[in-house]
Amino acid sequence: MKPPDRVVFDCNVFFQAFISGSGPAGQLLQAVSEKSLTLFVSAFVLEELTDVLSRPHLASQFKFTRERVAEYLDSLVQLATMTTDVPHVFEFPRDPKDAHYVDLALAVDAKLIVSRDKDLLSLRDAATGEGRDFLSRYPGLLILTPPEVLKLLAATLPPK
């Protein structure tokens, strides 16, 4: 992988970065701000993230305010490239919402989806029918966890 690479983060990666800016997901957002990665989002992604960050039980559990949520969402809009044309081409019956992340990656020619979602990660498993189908249809599209991406970046970027 030669940075800057085009990437799509799923909602849980954005949430993890929001909760812990120093964790793996937060480090990836830092890589985006340093132009090591080029991040793409869509209205769907921002709406899903807004929904998650608006849940009172999460705000209570993680001690965040509406103001902090608004600032974070504003920063993402500034940091990422907004994509409006995302044709629906990928069917994923197990979790239809996750199909949008694949659709977005395909629409922007991203080579990487960053996720901790078990359903999305299962698509890289050639031992399953869904995984075999995904890997044969989209051989150039990786789905990796934040720590896996950090390891890949560390191996390809010059030391600071």
Give your account of this protein's structure.
The chain is an alpha/beta fold and about 160 residues long. It has one domain: Rossmann fold. About 55% of the residues lie in helices and about 10% in strands. It is built from 9 helices and 5 strands; from the N terminus they run βααβαααβαβααβα. The chain has a 5-stranded parallel sheet with strand order 3-2-1-4-5, sandwiched between helices. α1 packs across α2 (about 25-35), α1 (about 10-20) crosses α3 (about 45-55) and α2 (about 25-35) crosses α9 (about 145-155). The longest helix is centred in the middle third of the chain and has 14 residues, at about 65-80. The protein is globular. The two termini are about 20 Å apart. The model has no long low-confidence stretch (mean pLDDT about 95).
CATH topology, which one? Rossmann fold
Mean pLDDT: 93
Largest sheet: 5 strands, parallel
For the record, what CATH class applies?
A: Alpha Beta
What is the structural class? Answer: alpha/beta
Series of H and E elements? EHHEHHHEHEHHEH
Number of strands: 5
Spatial order of the strands in the main sheet? 3-2-1-4-5
Q: Under the CATH scheme, which architecture would be assigned?
A: 3-Layer(aba) Sandwich
What fraction of residues sit in β-strands?
5-15%
Question: Helical amount among residues, as a percent range?
Answer: 55-70%
Tally of helical segments: 9
